[in-house]
Design a protein that fits this description.
The chain contains 21 helices and 23 strands. By secondary structure, the chain is an alpha+beta fold. The termini are far apart.
Length: about 675
Amino acid sequence: MADNKQTYDANKIQVLEGLEPVRKRPGMYIGSTDQRGLHHCVYEIVDNAIDEAMAGHCDHIIVMLHDDGSVSVEDNGRGIPVDIHPKTKKSALETVLTILHAGGKFGGDDSGYKVSGGLHGVGSSVVNALSSYLRAEVYREGKVHMQEYVRGKPKADVKAIGKTEKQGTKIQFELDSQIFDTLEMSLSMLLAHFRQQAYLTRGITISVMDEREKRPEEDKNLPRLYRFHFDGGISAYVRHLNHDKQAIGDVIWFEKDEKDGFVEVAIQYSQAFQEQCISFANNIHTIEGGTHLTGFKAALTRTINAYARKEGILKEKEENLTADDVREGLAAIVSVRLKDPQFEGQTKSKLGNAEMKAAVETVVNEKLAEYMEEHPADARDVVGKCLLAARARMAARAARDAVIRKGALEGMTLPGKLADCSSKDPSECELFIVEGDSAGGSAKQGRNREFQAILPLKGKILNVEQARLDKMLSNNEVKSLIIAMGMGIGEVKDKAKLRYHRIVIMTDADVDGAHIRTLLLTLFYRYFPELIDAGQLYIAQPPLYKITQGKQSRYAFTDQEKEATLKEWGIGQADLEAEGEGEEAVTEEVTNDEKLQKGKKTKDEKEADKPKAKKANIQRYKGLGEMNPDQLWETTMDPKGRIMLRVMLDDAEQADAIFTTLMGPEVPPRKKFIQTHAKGVKNLDI
């Protein structure tokens, strides 16, 4: 028996050398291998150039999307050193591009970086490891030095290939199809990131050029050349966030260099109800916030309360303004720069340095109090906005308590229109929010009662973008949805009590259905963003057509699918031109191959010689109610065959701008949006 056992010894321990760990586990270094990870690689290289700019050595970065699928990033910084590194015995360029945790960001001398975004020193080497090809050019001391790599391994040593008057570094790379799910770059995603970086680094210019012949659908109408340069820095950023909102006063901006790091803050209030607090550490967007954002929020609440008390705006018996009160309608950028940042993970989503909480608090307490003393009119407008939010909060609390109390008194009775599922395990349950009783009837009959619940909504729900919580809770449809989900809302919201781990928006494929879907998405984005973050919100994709020919039938979810099916079945393109709504027969002539016989034909023979018609019935579904329950189950609700879109949040700033434009009170931005995108709308049903 002993001879058959595998020996577990040192020989079984796998040692990954060089950049092998990156190729083996890319998600550990760039978060994922989907489109998000793809773009993260570009950001890593650009971050290195931004570090040069923050160190005062670079003022122009050029990013190019080449037609061959590669990307290049060029800066006019000092250029990566090319002399031999004393430890690795290789050139400094090769060391930076092939060894993890190697870079100019770890030393304490002045030749490196005081602050940097490329914290871990793995950015360039990780991108090199995940690229099928990379070429580095360094313009330094009058010479051009070059080195090429294939999947992280150098083809040859660094060599001088010419002379130049330029200075800086150019990295051109083609990401590896063996690693990434897609290699299609989104220009719009890249632009959003680079615009943000240009705001954060005053005086820098970031140029973006798109040379691709074949561009993604979303990029086709975008210009091919962009140049970002903002002398106003984060003040201009805040104005950008509030550009389509009714602002209160001017932007309040201040900065100070503390012993633990540099703090810069810009804030401005508007008449909107939502807050937008965006934080950065060394120009890295800390999506999950961290100690710097915590310090800002605490200081903001304390300073505004202190001013309101001192000026007698808040009376002695009145309670203090809460953190939510002072952040309603606030747009704020909090940017810190520090020498040794501690991020959570390589994707740097949260700052953990405890000292930055105190540093930001100190600066905000001091500088904001000074501003309010020097600008009493603006200060009173800000406090007035916060007091209005406080009164609305109290009204909302009463309304929310009434909803919760009603549910409690009725033994948490669910809405009468809800057809609940029998399973009590939230992880396997899903809630379909459907439009109207007709669709609700089909969905209730077609569903799997074990794990699928149906909630029909009557008409269009309230636009929550223009309503506070108290008004929102007076809307019966919104109230029914909140009670059905079970997790509450506002201060008492508890995601652990969510009754369904999949929430599915299922509306008709027409203008009204799109409007209802947008209203529901606004509700979830503004009041239940944690469901979007967790990937628990979906949009159902019912078919647009049912195509039947003889005994065979097929569903088509797009016009392209419909045309492909008709072509496959031998139905000509010309016959589709007369297509309308509902059922219709589309015909194509099928010629008889028999040769004409000599002599006169009988009447029956003449009929037999006439072209025969091959028919296909096309049914266009305008509403879910037009579908039979079994059809709705088969196409849209059956987990084995359905198609659903998961709602994701890639860019909170862009999402906020879109919801404000489409659902906010200002009409001109919405009119401009419609005029801009009108030509791209196909098959508009009115």
